[in-house]
């Protein structure tokens, strides 16, 4: 199972002060050095974290593969066709949400999704659809010609009640198996952390996980000691 790292929230820290650091590009390079097999960014319409400049530079420096998550807007399609990430993941987007709240509803807008998939394919870009683990959505993703489905693990990750957790896990398993049987590549992500990933990794059909927030949050802490030592060295040095 491959791991792709989403560096959105490195940019969240930068944008909190509209500063130049920390740079998600530097984080992506370090993530690759740490073994990440892909880099993910979500260029949101409101540009709350990742900026256009980040995607442009990432395109040049990422050595593994660059996955651009985006809404199906004309603006985003033209950015994708110009920058040409290795993969575009189409996601639903709401301005007021804290993070993505659910999968893309492919069933209700099949024609539109098909046309966006075709345009991105025309630019030589692999396409992934971020969908709920739902059989009807998997079928629709297959019908519109997607290469990959990324199964939304958020419901599973957030479930507290053991019965809900079990049901959410079974839905992921079933959707993953079905998608694989249709010839789709199966990825998964959202809300995965250092604990719940141990369950998700049991689903053998999943080829790649996208994890962001938990890894960036941990990096802030495990990297803190070194950051303070570096500052002390500067203060104490002559
Ligand atoms: C599609 C998905 O599950 C996430 O990558 C999400 O799009 C991340 O968005 P934020 O980083 O803004 O929470
Ligand atoms: N597509 C999921 C992703 O890129 C990362 O989601 P999260 O780990 O930040 O919740």
From TrEMBL:
Site location (Transition state stabilizer): 150
Main location: cytoplasm
InterPro entries with a match to the protein in the record: Aldolase_TIM (IPR013785), PyrdxlP_synth_PdxJ (IPR004569), Pyridoxine-5'_phos_synth (IPR036130)
Single Gene Ontology BP annotation: pyridoxine biosynthetic process
CDD domains: PNPsynthase
Reaction it catalyzes: 3-amino-2-oxopropyl phosphate + 1-deoxy-D-xylulose 5-phosphate = pyridoxine 5'-phosphate + phosphate + 2 H2O + H(+)
Binding locations of 3-amino-2-oxopropyl phosphate: 6, 17, 191, 212-213
Binding site for 1-deoxy-D-xylulose 5-phosphate: 8-9, 44, 49, 99
Protein role: Catalyzes the complicated ring closure reaction between the two acyclic compounds 1-deoxy-D-xylulose-5-phosphate (DXP) and 3-amino-2-oxopropyl phosphate (1-amino-acetone-3-phosphate or AAP) to form pyridoxine 5'-phosphate (PNP) and inorganic phosphate.
Name of the protein: Pyridoxine 5'-phosphate synthase
Organism: Thermodesulforhabdus norvegica
Gene name tied to this protein: pdxJ
